[in-house]
Amino acid sequence: MGKKERDTLTKEVTALREEVTSLHANLRQMIPGFSNTSNSFPMISEVTNLTSEFYKYDCQDIFFDILCPELNLKGIVFFFQCAFKGVSDIVSQYFGPTEASIRTTGAFESLEGPIMSVLRKSYQTTYQDITRKVLSQGLFGQIIQEIQNQLQLGSDSPEAVERILEFLKKLAELLLIFYISDPPVYVNIQSVGSYVSFNPIVHDVLDGFVKPKEECVIVLPATHKNHAEGELLNKALVLSLHYEIPN
b or e along 138-164 (b: 16 or more beta carbons within 10 Å of the residue's beta carbon)? Predict the structure, then answer.
């Protein structure tokens, strides 16, 4: 075999290898069980870290800067209840019509399983565009109005409203990632405001000090892999019922 033939054959083999690699990667994205295979989408461990950073920085910043100077414990809990529930509803409403249409067209009782896994991996490839669409739709006004009708943070000044909006948008980015992660990240929003006995295995303290078995209130919800009984990813953050607010 001459040099020219060998070079031609080498190029053909290389092209075939690249094609097989590409097909393999595409197949991985279609198979349930492979976690977050899109190159631009965070892996589940990175999602856990993003949540920890959001709780540590964004939530604590608004907690100390905006909430503590003006509110009691009940008001602080109300703020986070409204924020998490309202933003979660926005995320669900964004995907709801498409997924309802697929269920109707296919006569499916549920999309959970291979179909939803493929949908999530498809969403992952364009999740940054999805995030921009959700954040630009102006859907946060109702949440802000509900918060301010009850709390009047910052005397309802434009600066206070802008700070709340900024927080809600960051929360929306995180909850979108939760929704389209495969497996999804379950956030126990219903637990916010619940009274629990402090257990350091499943709870962390937002501020102050809480003794084991001391009664406290959940302020920021836990996250789990896939469902409420799944692997714990992020602990719930709590405050003691006797927490002295630094205001």
Answer: ebbeebbeebbeebebbeeeeebbebb
What percent of the chain has a predicted confidence (pLDDT) above 90? 66
For the range 142-149, what are the long-range contacts, defined as Cβ-Cβ under 8 Å and sequence gap of 24 or more? Answer: 142/86, 143/82, 143/83, 143/86, 143/87, 143/168, 144/168, 146/82, 146/86, 147/78, 147/79, 147/82, 147/83
Rounded to whole angstroms, how far apart are CA atoms 143 and 2?
73
Q: How many CB atoms lie within 10 A of CB 95?
A: 17
Rounded distance, CA 106 to CA 162, Å?
43
Read off the amino acid at residue 98: T
C-alpha span between 64 and 219 (Å, rounded): 14
Q: Which residue has the tokens 């405001």?
A: 193
Three-class secondary structure of residue 117 per DSSP: helix
Mean of pLDDT over the chain: 88
Can you list the pairs that 95-102 forms with residues at least 24 positions away whose Cβ atoms lie under 8 Å? 95/123, 95/179
The vertex-212 CA angle with 208 and 218, nearest 5°, equals 60
Classify residue 216 as exposed, middle or buried by CB count within 10 Å of its CB (0-12, 13-18, 19+): buried
The pLDDT value recorded for residue 114 is: 85
pTM for the model stands at 0.82
User: Which tokens is 103 given?
Assistant: 């269920």
